[in-house]
Q: What sequence folds into this?
């Protein structure tokens, strides 16, 4: 009931003046009804599913991290849409609409991740994020990169 | 101050009377339209008066609860936000009023309001955005402003006016919708049966009522706006400055609030006059200064900053100097016993970065939503939602197992 | 007959007015007493907070033994003080010692990052505020009461029922006045 409404969240994205991550509960798009836990380290937050080890990176979080919406948008756009992916489509945990598959990494060994069509954020299945990081698709000096590898270094 | 309290009590009664007359007239028209006999009109009046009685008793007994629920305010304990609680307690001590109930609204737009029937049953609600954005002195300024509303008994009037207005707005909505569906159905029926004079008549009555209500609601709204508006806000600013002895706190808070561009999600036309700053105001709208429920913030800030002391007389003097309106507040603010009141030094305010602020707001909203916060020794923070199923979580960083329940 | 009725009405009105003024005097007197006891409540709260604060800070501030001793001593003196004047002086000294301590804390970033200490610091600075606001409120209420006992017609009733003027709360040493406003 007290969950921030979707329109409020969308507005916080479009106005870009007061970026705020999704407050209120989110369910894992893979496990459907397990609630995700927020992890915070060094003022960076990600949503994490303890059941499938998947990670949700919020658009608001991306924006906060990259200090400006255009950088975050550019990053999202830098991924190539995947046209012939057979992987099951997943709902965005925020708008519940089906996300599109995008491929990151090299042409020969692409890693398929999910991106909300309304740019609410990115979903990484277990291990995918580590793969993307190790393949250097994300900028090496990037703060998210460093942080995430720090959180999940043991896996 | 005493005069303001008396004026508010008088206005509350006046408003109730006015509502009785308006509803009675409406009931008479309705009764006459249906029965076409004076007895029908009287019956309508009786019905309207019963409705009025119900409305009045609702707004008296639980008007504040309706507002808090409509604003999606959640009651919180001291554990959720100790500073907020302390600041409210400080202001209740300074004003000599009992401690009000404290609510947080889950919204990133910074704002606050007070409601309740009497100082003994008052509530103060602030948004998560306000808590995230303001430092301690600024928060104190805002709470002092709300406490002054309670002290001046503004809250009863606003609550009664709000419930009455809300009920009328709701009724007009229901009638308008009803009329819309009736005309839809009537339209489709007409295709099959030509005899629809009875339906047409009821439709006409509905139409008249809907139009009456639709006209009445905005009139009531503007009445409410006028009665509430500027003077009350100025006086609450003055009272707040007197309570804290530190007008700069409120001035700086108002400035920060005015920089906000997100409208308050849970506010609407009915509840707008209750807030410390107009929650519906859009940035850069100069015209809104003329018709707004609230005086322009820039002016309020200028007056607060121009105060030579913290007494009501000081505010009144600054008001005359900086306000664009020629009217004076002296008649109301000049307390017979308003001794000079010295200003106080502010405490050092730490600067909080934009990211930190956003994180603060998020954390406050999560605390209100009963998230459990776990701080692992490896410095990873886990924020576990209330419907998390497992009994324990293993820190993904250092593998320590933490109990959740 | 009519004259009698009018007389009766006047008498009733006068009695009602006297009752009203008497009640408002009683209310004001209670408020003054209330504010006064609120000051005591907050001073006691400050005494209660100090041991916890020192316990938390000790581990981080090994070289500040003198500061802790000064606070502990000032605290026990304030707790043992009798009478308004003596207690006011002792509380002033305690406030000054705490203010000095808070300035020293600035040099210990580790302590300032400690969640437990931060919570205690908020409690303490809020208690300081509450002491100041309780005094302020006491003086406000005393002002209202004194005005009522001096102004006509309430002064007549105040005289009849023995409502006396109250003294304002004033710190003897003007320097101590600034103590509660030490920057935290």
A:
């Amino acid at each position: 009931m007290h969950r921030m409404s979707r329109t409020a969240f969308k507005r916080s994205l479009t106005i870009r003046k007061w970026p705020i991550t999704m407050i209120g509960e989110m369910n894992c798009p893979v496990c459907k009804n397990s609630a995700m836990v927020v992890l915070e380290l060094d003022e960076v937050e990600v949503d994490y599913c303890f059941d499938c080890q998947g990670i949700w990176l919020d658009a608001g979080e991306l924006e906060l991290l990259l200090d400006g919406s255009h950088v975050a948008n550019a990053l999202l756009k830098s991924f190539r849409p995947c046209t012939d992916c057979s992987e099951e489509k997943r709902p965005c945990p925020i708008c519940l609409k089906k996300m599109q598959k995008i491929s990151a990494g090299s042409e020969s060994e692409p890693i398929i991740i999910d991106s909300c069509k309304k740019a609410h954020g990115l979903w990484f299945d277990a291990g995918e994020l580590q793969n993307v990081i190790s393949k250097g698709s994300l900028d090496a000096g990037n703060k998210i990169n460093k942080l995430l590898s720090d959180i999940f270094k043991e896996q | 101050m005493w005069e303001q309290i008396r004026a508010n009590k008088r206005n509350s009664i006046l408003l109730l009377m006015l509502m009785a007359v308006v509803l009675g007239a409406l009931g008479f028209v309705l009764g006459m339209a249906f029965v076409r006999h004076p007895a029908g009109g009287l019956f309508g009046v009786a019905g309207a008066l019963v409705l009025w009685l119900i409305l009045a008793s609702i707004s008296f007994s639980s008007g504040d609860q309706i507002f808090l629920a409509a604003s999606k305010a959640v009651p919180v304990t001291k554990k959720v936000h100790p500073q907020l609680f302390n600041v409210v307690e400080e202001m209740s001590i300074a004003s000599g009023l009992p401690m009000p109930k404290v609510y947080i609204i889950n919204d990133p737009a910074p704002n606050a309001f007070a409601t309740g029937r009497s100082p003994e049953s008052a509530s103060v609600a602030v948004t998560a955005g306000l808590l995230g954005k303001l430092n301690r002195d600024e928060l104190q300024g805002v709470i002092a402003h709300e406490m002054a509303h309670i002290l001046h008994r503004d809250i009863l009037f606003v609550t009664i006016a709000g419930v009455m207005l809300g009920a009328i707005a709701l009724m007009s909505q229901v009638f308008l919708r009803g009329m819309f569906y009736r005309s839809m159905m009537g339209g489709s029926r007409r295709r099959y049966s030509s005899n629809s004079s009875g339906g047409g008549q009821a439709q006409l009555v509905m139409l008249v009522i809907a139009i009456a209500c639709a006209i009445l609601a905005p009139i009531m709204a503007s009445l409410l706006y006028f009665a509430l508006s500027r003077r009350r806000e100025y006086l609450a600013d003055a009272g707040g400055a007197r309570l804290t002895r530190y007008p700069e706190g409120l001035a700086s808070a108002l400035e920060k609030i005015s920089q906000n561009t997100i409208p308050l999600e849970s506010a609407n036309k009915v509840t707008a006059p209750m807030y410390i700053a107009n929650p519906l105001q859009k940035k850069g709208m100069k015209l809104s200064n003329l018709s707004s429920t609230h005086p322009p913030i820039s002016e309020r800030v200028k007056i607060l900053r121009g105060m030579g002391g913290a007494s009501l007389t000081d505010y009144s003097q600054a008001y005359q100097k900086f306000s664009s309106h020629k009217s004076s507040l002296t008649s109301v603010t000049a307390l017979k016993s308003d001794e000079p009141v010295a200003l106080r030094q502010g405490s050092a305010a730490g600067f909080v970065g934009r990211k930190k602020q956003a994180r603060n707001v998020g954390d406050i909203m999560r605390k209100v939503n009963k998230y459990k916060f776990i701080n692992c020794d490896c410095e990873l923070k886990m924020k576990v939602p209330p419907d998390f199923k497992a009994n324990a979580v293993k820190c993904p960083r250092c593998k320590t197992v933490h109990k959740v329940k | 007959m009519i004259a009698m009725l009018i007389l009766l009405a006047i008498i009733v009105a006068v009695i009602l007015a006297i009752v009203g003024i008497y009640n408002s005097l009683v209310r004001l007197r209670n408020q003054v007493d209330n504010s006064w006891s609120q000051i005591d409540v907050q001073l006691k709260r400050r005494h209660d907070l100090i041991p916890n604060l020192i316990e938390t800070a000790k581990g981080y501030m090994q070289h500040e033994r003198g500061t802790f001793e000064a606070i502990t001593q000032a605290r026990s003196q304030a707790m043992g003080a009798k009478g308004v004047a003596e207690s006011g002086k002792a509380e002033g000294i305690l406030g000054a010692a705490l203010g000095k301590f808070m300035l020293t804390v600035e040099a210990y970033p580790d302590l300032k990052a400690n969640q437990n200490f931060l919570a205690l610091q908020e409690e303490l600075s809020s208690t300081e505020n509450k002491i100041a606001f309780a005094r302020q409120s006491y003086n406000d209420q005393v002002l209202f009461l004194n005005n009522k006992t001096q102004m006509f017609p309430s002064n007549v009733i105040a005289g009849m029922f023995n409502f006396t003027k109250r003294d304002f709360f004033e710190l003897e040493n003007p320097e101590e006045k600034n103590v509660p406003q030490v920057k935290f």
Summary: The radius of gyration of chain B is 25 Å. Chain B has two domains: 1-356, 371-403. Residues 188-197, 282-291, 330-337 of chain B have pLDDT under 50 and may be disordered.
